[in-house]
Amino acid sequence: MAGLTVLCVTAALLLLASGGAIPPPEEAARMARFVLHNCDWGALATLSAQEGLRGQPFANIFSLSDGPPGPLGGSGVPYLYLTDMEISVQDLEINSNASLTVSLAQTPYCKKHKYDPQNPLCAHIIFCGSIVKVNDSEAGLAKKALFSRHPEMESWPKDHNWFFAKFNITNIWVLDYFGGLKIVTPEEYYSVKP
């Protein structure tokens, strides 16, 4: 009986830690939404505009959020808080195209299951698209999404001219099981809940 209790508690902790039950592999669009909503940061790859690296791929870590934590808070839109002083943002000013990778490796889920970050069962999503500044009507939503997960952002230096941006998704690849990448359209992605 004690073993069953420990198993039930462990399962409950996994569900809480990962924001709910992980979607099954056959629901790739839901998996993409689930992974994004449960991740607080991602690797953003740009084409460098920096001297000596011009035109080369350049990946950098950025805090992000698609909405407040919890099972009902995600919009699916990856929001970012950026400054022109940041090297990758300088790249984006020349070419706004980018890719964004988010992985459940940053959550307790993969460690609890002893999945290496490269194991397909430790799901990761690759988004391609572009970074765009949000308009005034969307800035409040972006602010709530980001500051609810990253409260430190509110105290970042004002003289850095921070602005809210979003990743405008054009392509989505999901790796969450053996057998290769799954392609999800933005329409499929936005039509489901995580």
Give the structure's gist in a few sentences.
The chain has 6 helices and 7 strands. The chain has 194 residues and is α+β, with helices and mostly antiparallel strands.
How would you describe this protein?
The protein has 194 residues and is an alpha+beta fold. The protein has one domain: Electron Transport, Fmn-binding Protein, Chain A (Pnp Oxidase, Chain A), CATH 2.30.110.10. It is 31% helix and 26% strand. The protein has helices at residues 2-17, 28-38, 87-94, 108-112, 136-149, 186-191, and strands at residues 41-47, 57-63, 79-82, 97-103, 124-133, 163-175, 182-184. Strands 1, 2, 3, 4, 5, 6 and 7 form a 7-stranded antiparallel β-sheet that branches. The chain is globular, with a radius of gyration of 18 Å. The protein starts with a helix and ends with a helix.
Strand content: 25-35%
Q: Into which percent range does the helicity of residues fall?
A: 25-40%
- CATH C-level name: Mainly Beta
**Elements, N to C (H/E):** HHEEEHEHEHEEH
Task: Please count the helical segments.
Answer: 6
Q: Which overall shape is indicated by the principal axes computed on the Cα atoms?
A: globular
Compute the separation of the termini in Å.
33 Å
How many strands?
7
Overall number of domains: 1
Radius of gyration, in angstroms, nearest whole number? 18 Å
